[in-house]
Amino acid sequence: MAAIGTVQTTARRDVLQMYSDKELIRRYRLNKSGIEYVTGLIADKICPSTSRSHAMTGTEKVVATLRYFATGKMQLCNGDDLGLSQSSVSRAIEQTVSALSDAEIASQFIHFPTTQGCIRRNQAAFYNIAHFPGVVGVIDGSHVQIIAPSVDEPSYVNRKQYHSINTQLVFDPNNMIIDLVAKWPGSTHDSRILTESGLHILFERHIVPTGCHLLGDSGYPCRNWLLTPYLRPNPGSQTSYNRAHKRTRSVVERGIGQLKRRFHVLHGEIRLSPIKACKIITCCGILHNICKIRNIPLPDSESNVPDDDMTAPYRERDIPGHNLTFRNHFANTHFQCE
């Protein structure tokens, strides 16, 4: 019997001992060794500095955060799952998100290839999809819904009339994220996000060698290093180019689908400030790549969930900076009538 005047709390649950790897992946998206690995990455920032009896361990903080990312559930539900109070879970998530989204951690797991070996491997793998030469990455924007912010609210309303963060994502042929920019309000166009990103500098300053290409949809300006589809292709090389472009660029659609199926917090409305929401998006990108590196699969029950298409369709529009002459030359050189 509890002593008079004490507060009864739910017993802590050691989920790493309670569940098999399959069940851990279903609940938290990482297996036991993956959870321990992530905890180790940020242990110096999240592990308790005191030995007081009820302080949450680093592992408990990571598990609480992963449960939130995996389900998008209210934090009280996470407390019920883990035997932790709502306030403890809230603090744990904030601390873990801040630590994991740190630029130093992000750069370890999300980085664009600039060495010849990595570039050639990407080009070869992309070429094997539909014989489209020179591709090092596929790019798109994806909207993550957020609650209406208290500052600059209209700028966050996207073309589908809800508040969001427009996130730039680039994937390699293995569905690894090689570039992620999560900081722009939902009304910002994909082309502006790219133009003001570090990725633009890599290509424009030839840090990524000439002859390397990104594939994007028609919302982007066509350039020597960024190839977009023809809106009204002529029969022959242009039609063949479009066919190969579509098949190769489907990697980014599949990658975004995997990211959002793995972390359902990106499906619903993130009820936090834009700055905190951007950190959560970055964390999910880092964790997605960690899962890829460690061969941690999507949960079985959700591997066939249809992709949630949040991207803009091809549009008839004129975008400054188009280099259509290069695209025509490229199509005529590599996609003659079959």
If helices are DSSP runs of H or I spanning 4 or more residues, what is the number of helices?
Answer: 14
Distance between the termini: 82 Å
Strand content: 5-15%
Biggest sheet overview: 5 strands, mixed
Oligomer: single chain
Secondary structure class reads alpha/beta
Unreliable residue runs: 1-8, 303-318
The sequence of SSEs as H and E is HHHHHHHHHEEEHHEEHHH
Shape: elongated
Mean pLDDT: 89
Helical coverage, percent range: 40-55%
Radius of gyration, CA atoms, in whole angstroms: 22 Å
Structure overview:
With 338 residues, the chain is of the alpha/beta class. Helix content is 46%, strand content 10%. It is built from 14 helices and 5 strands. A 5-stranded mixed sheet has the order 3-2-1-4-5. A hairpin with a 5-residue loop joins strand 2 and strand 3 (177-185). Helix 12 (237-262) packs across helix 14 (324-334). The N and C termini lie far apart (82 Å).
